[in-house]
Amino acid sequence: MKPECLLISAVVMFSLLISACNNADDDFESQWGKCSDYTYLDDSAQCRTFSVPLNYDEPLGQHIDISAFRYLGTAENKEGQIWFLEGGPGGSGRLLSRAMLRVAMYYPDFDFYSLDHRGVGLSTRLGCSGDNNIGDDWESYQECYSDIFEIWRDRIKDFSTTNAARDLHEVIARSRQGGKKTFIWATSYGTYWLLRYLQIYPDEADGVILDSICTPGECYLDRYDRWNDMVGRQFLELCRSDPVCSEKMKAIAEDPSQAVELVFRLLDQEQLPSECNLMFTREELRHVMSQLLNNWSTRVLIPPLIYRLYRCSNEDQEVINFFRQNLQAVAIDKTLLNSPMLCDLISLSELFGGSTSAELQEFLEGARFSEDVSFRFAEIYESGLWNLYHDEIYAQKLPDTDIPMLMLNGTTDPQTPIEIAGKMK
């Protein structure tokens, strides 16, 4: 071929390449559209699906869908993107929608993105029909696992934190706009997921925000019940330092901690006044105490509940019965949002430290604040039901990165206590 023909061909090919790139950008934007899925998203949200490898070591093998959504900033010139990662494991990014909109009010020059972790929500959900309602029904749980295993077999191990971190890289890389900054905010297990991403891609983001930190090497969910009871006792110390709370609880015992101990002992001995002995079992009361503790707006109900159980007047009984009815109110159906089975896979594979059910049962006999989450994990682990994976390269290890980090944690957080979060310093 003559040189001038080669030159013309090169120019034509270059023009086609530029055209293809421009079309790719247009195609990228065209794939974002109105969200037609389930609840929690504002009408202004845009959604799209990314196809990613089930196993990144086999890029030409089976692919799965990763569902993402975004809210576009209102400013004409954008600084970049902020990505939001939900925790769990097994929590849907859709649950962060309201928080994202709140932050967007203050940062109109950013676009806000989130995604469902692989195995959750619309990201090729790992689960079975009604798995959010199994509760303690072991037979139904086994049937659910069998249904999942029938579909995925050994590929169930590909729904790991490491692959989810690679998913995050993929969706960011395919959404990032040239010259714009990318920040990532994460909460709870989401921080563990984000730190895994930083292990593999230490320089990709411009900065991260770790909120309620699941510190690798410290964050083991078979310690979850112990954390709850520890923070519950810390909360009772705060009650003792409050004049009103302390004075009320002195009607029961010298300090709030002793008052709680006494009410539990009287409940065990069926010596609470009147009908209050029948209102809770010991197990139910520690579950309720833990549920109240998990939210800053409800934990203030803990001392009044103990106070009313001890006094147990007719008015107290009426109030407590009203309280119990509201505890039992049917919550919003989250079947399409969360994945408890994905939670169990990751928790048992990466976030389980080896506690035995016997050890945890002994602990629970003296606990005052506990949802018995750790005990449940230990029983499932000991059953040998799950086909677990072991990540010797990344699990429970810290990243080596120099990017800026903002770290936030509550001082009385029973799910990610400051005692383990502080190790991130």
In short:
With 425 residues, the chain is of the alpha/beta class.
* Structural Rg: 25 Å
Mass-distribution shape: globular
Q: Enumerate how many helices there are, as a single number.
A: 15
What portion of residues is helical?
40-55%
Distance between the termini: 64 Å
DSSP strand content: 5-15%
Flag low-confidence runs.
1-26
Order of helices and strands: HEEEEHEHHEHEHHHHHHHHHEH
Number of strands: 8
Instruction: Going across the biggest sheet, name each strand in turn.
Output: 1-2-3-5-4-6-7-8
Give the structural class. alpha/beta
What does the average pLDDT come to? Answer: 90
| Biggest β-sheet strands, sense, barrel | 8 strands, mixed
Give the topology.
Blueprint: H1 3-30, E1 33-34, E2 46-53, E3 63-71, E4 80-85, H2 97-104, E5 110-115, H3 138-152, H4 161-173, E6 181-188, H5 189-200, E7 207-213, H6 224-240, H7 243-249, H8 256-268, H9 282-293, H10 302-311, H11 314-327, H12 340-350, H13 357-364, H14 373-383, E8 405-408, H15 418-421
Parallel strand pairs: 4-5, 4-6, 6-7, 7-8
Antiparallel strand pairs: 1-2, 2-3, 3-5
Helix pairs in contact: 4-5, 8-10
